Amino acid sequence: MFAAPLLIQAQAPATAGAQGNPPGGGVQVGVPGGRQGGGQGRQGGGQGRQGGGGRGAAPQLPAPRLPDGRVLLNNAPTDKGGLWVAANFGITTPLAPPNTNRNPKNNSPVDISLVPFQPWAKALFDDRQQHELEPHTRCKASGVSRQFLTPYGVEFVELTELQRIYIFDVGGPHTYRTIYMDGRSHPKGELPLYYGHSIGWWEGDTLVVDTTGYNESFWLDRRGVPHTEQLHTIEKFTRTTAGTIKYEVTIDDPGAYTKPWTATFDLRRENGQELFEYICQQANYAHELMVGTEQSVDRSTTIIP
Fold it and tell me: What is the count of structural domains for the chain?
């Protein structure tokens, strides 16, 4: 089973600034998505979800809106809870674009020739295919698109009186991301963070988020796409229906790539779900993500993150 087509787009360099326009232009190339993967945690499901189409699928309801007409990303007052999970969520994510070649290890498409890696970044990505010591499996926070590929999904919480939007993780190290909506600029000289420093604004039904100030201590996706502290991202969240958010991210990192590039995938709503207590380390059975090609993990000693 394959994911929906991924769109990769060559970009002009992104421009920082709270009110600046995100990069645009270029030629889009459609690429098939990755396999439905294993990994820890459930793969979605649940009752009453607003998932993708297909024969007999219920028609999509329109996105909920505020009285002023602006679309809502978070739960509407009439909702009985709900979380957002990545459509076709799996160990291989559409962010690293594959095509028809196959990895003998897991039979997944792995040709990522459309990502403009610098040589060292491609070598690191290749190494991570064999040594999958992903920080997220050791309870580290995951920024950018990797945040939406965590177990159990995320919740958007908008506090208009504070002019902030929060994105809460369910699976992981009990972290959340803050998006400042008050028109501020990025600070100078701030210590690099897992989530960076995010500023956002609305363009119609699309939330645009500009982020800088990342550290290098997380992967951009579940497959090991690397980055440096020069990373600058532009993300777009467009709620197209009650059950779908189109997610688009532009990666601008001159330390790891020869030019900016863009990837997209959808987030699917799981109705009736809510945040719950998630114990990351003590009940972590995703040993294949910790030890890569090894067949077992020694539990006789304490795991050191």
Answer: 1
